[in-house]
Design goal:
The structure holds two protein chains of two kinds.
Chain A: E1 4-8, E2 26-32, H1 43-55, E3 59-63, E4 70-72, H2 77-84, E5 92-96, H3 99-105, E6 120-123, H4 132-138, H5 143-149, E7 153-159, E8 166-170, H6 173-185, E9 190-192, H7 195-199
Parallel strand pairs in A: 1-9
Antiparallel strand pairs in A: 1-2, 2-8, 3-5, 3-6, 4-5, 6-7, 7-8
Helix pairs in contact in A: 1-3, 1-6
Chain B: H1 5-18, H2 27-33, H3 43-56, H4 68-74, H5 89-92, H6 109-115, E1 122-123, E2 131-133, E3 147-150, E4 157-165, E5 170-178, H7 181-184, H8 194-227, H9 231-263, H10 267-300
Antiparallel strand pairs in B: 1-2, 2-3, 3-4, 4-5
Classes of the chains: A alpha+beta, B alpha+beta.
């Protein structure tokens, strides 16, 4: 089976994929190819997708590791106490334009992509200040409403169930089309499919 | 004050076994200090002797009853050994303390042992620093999975999940894994059998029930400290018990995980680790409790004598 990125605009399976309520401006992204040993994005897609995301401008994501580009997510006092006791890790919102950093974020500590504790956001303007409640909303089933509540977010890429697919939302349709063009530009085959082919690629 | 001999006759045998440490174990030394050495005193003789000692030593109580307060004052004088003699019948025949049935010592041992695996990260031998846990290591704090073998950062994980399976294209019980294939040989979305389903369901309830049990155990232990005749002694025992329960859970749990991995990587690892943790936690709690009491008694019975100054 040759590797390919699958795009589906029919959202009838969005509940099964644990991507919340359907919205007309969401694209479902999936992939087919050789059987995967590890959860998450396959290696052949990780690099091209990271390059395409970073090319669109600053990319925000969550991580348990601080960096020069990190802002700590404001945590309530109970969580701070738990962190002091080693029962919880601090959480940072990081912004980068470096494809390698974007690729590493799919494996970020304390913000697992395959457990749907991660989201990638296209940022315009200064990085948004986030509270823990807002961070939790961004990775919940109501992620799209949380994204829309925040200003300065152009697009969002959120993992579906077990990180085995993703939902992509953009504030303008051109952003999604540009992303797919950039991925094609890296040599990855991109195909629009119906829901049956999306779930059971040939 | 005059001695109530009836009260003394019933209370002295009672306090003989319930004081800490029980003074009937040092009865021959007690007799010697009271001037009754080499005799078999009656209950009345004994009460008189205690009464006399209480007056001679300016005790606030002089009722002839060797209770905990009097015993605390008398005990330092009994730190020697005399030849053992049989206990007098009025003391030896005294059976169960009068209210033992109403004063069963409280201990959190059973609930703590039962719930410890839900709160302790059970190490799995080998590279990768993996541990068995019942909650995910991500900031969201929840997951459809109920059992996790994961590293501290949560980005190397083998977890037992129920939900949509991309590979089988149906909703089923399956493993999800990232970065642990070399150790367990399990691939992502690998479906599990009946044993895996039962483990998933068991873990689903145990992760909450276990935490409740630990809270119940902590509460019982706190009450036991407040109610104890020697709160500091009980507190020492409780702290020691919890510390060794934690160590026991980790050490025996790690051994159980290794044995379980040998039988069946993944399922066996989890079952062996949790079972080992519970056994190790229980033994550790019991041993820690005894150790704490022993150390406290040893420290309490130790007296330091000032040495003569040596002229330089």
């Amino acid at each position: 089976m040759s590797p390919q990125l699958l795009v589906c605009r029919d959202l009838r399976d969005i509940g099964l994929l644990e991507l919340g309520a359907p919205a007309p401006d969401i694209l479902l992204l999936g992939w087919s190819g050789p059987p995967q040993v590890d959860a998450g994005l396959p290696e052949w897609l990780l690099g091209p997708l990271s390059i395409a995301l970073a090319a669109s401008g600053p990319v925000g994501f969550f991580s348990g590791d601080a960096g020069p580009d990190a802002t700590e997510v404001a945590a309530p006092w109970m969580r701070r106490v738990a962190a002091l006791l080693g029962r919880a890790a601090p959480l940072y919102f990081r912004v980068t334009t470096v494809p390698k950093t974007v690729a590493a974020a799919f494996d970020a500590p304390n913000a697992s992509w395959d457990m749907q504790a991660q989201i990638f956001l296209g940022i315009s303007g200064p990085p948004p200040a986030l509270s823990m409640a807002e961070a939790e909303a961004l990775v919940s089933d109501t992620w799209l409403a949380a994204v829309r509540r925040k200003s300065g977010i152009r697009w969002a890429l959120r993992p579906a169930v077990d990180g085995a697919a993703a939902g992509f939302w953009s504030s303008e349709p051109d952003i999604g089309a540009d992303l797919l063009d950039r991925i094609r530009g890296t040599g990855v085959s991109v195909n629009e499919v119906d829901p049956d082919s999306f779930r059971c690629p040939a | 004050m005059p001695i109530d001999y009836d009260a003394a006759a019933s209370l002295n045998p009672y306090f003989a076994s319930v004081t800490v440490p029980p003074w009937n174990a040092s009865f021959n030394e007690v007799k010697t200090v009271l001037g009754l050495g080499g005799t078999q005193p009656t209950a009345k003789d004994f009460a008189d002797a205690v009464h006399g000692w209480q007056i001679d030593n300016c005790r606030t109580r002089d009722d002839g009853i060797l209770d905990q307060t009097t015993w605390d004052a008398l005990r330092p004088h009994t730190m020697f050994c005399v030849e053992a003699e049989p206990l007098p019948t009025w003391l030896a025949d005294f059976g169960v303390p009068l209210d033992e049935g109403d004063d069963v010592p409280l201990s959190g041992q059973i609930p703590v042992t039962g719930g410890i695996a839900a709160v302790v990260r059970i190490p799995v031998p080998g590279n990768g620093k993996l541990g068995i846990e019942f909650f995910p290591r991500n900031f969201k704090g929840d997951s459809t999975s109920t059992l996790f073998i994961q590293n501290i950062k949560g980005n190397k994980t083998l977890r037992l999940d129920y939900g949509y399976n991309k590979v089988s294209n149906t909703i089923d019980y399956h493993w999800n894994q990232k970065g642990t294939h070399a150790k367990f040989g399990i691939t992502d979305h690998q479906t599990v059998g009946k044993a895996g389903q039962m483990l998933y369901k068991g873990a689903k309830y145990y992760r909450y029930a276990g935490r409740v049990l630990v809270v119940v155990g902590a509460t019982l232990d706190a009450i036991s400290i407040v109610k104890a005749s020697k709160p500091l002694r009980r507190a020492t025992a409780v702290v020691s018990a919890w510390a060794l329960a934690w160590v026991g859970c980790k050490v025996v749990g790690k051994g159980g995980a290794a044995a379980g991995t040998f039988v069946e990587p993944g399922l066996g690892t989890a079952i062996g680790g949790v079972a080992g943790c519970i056994v190790g936690g229980g033994v550790g709690y019991w041993g820690g409790e005894k150790l704490g009491e022993t150390v406290y008694d040893w420290a309490e019975g130790t007296f330091f004598t000032e040495l003569d100054r040596i002229k330089s």
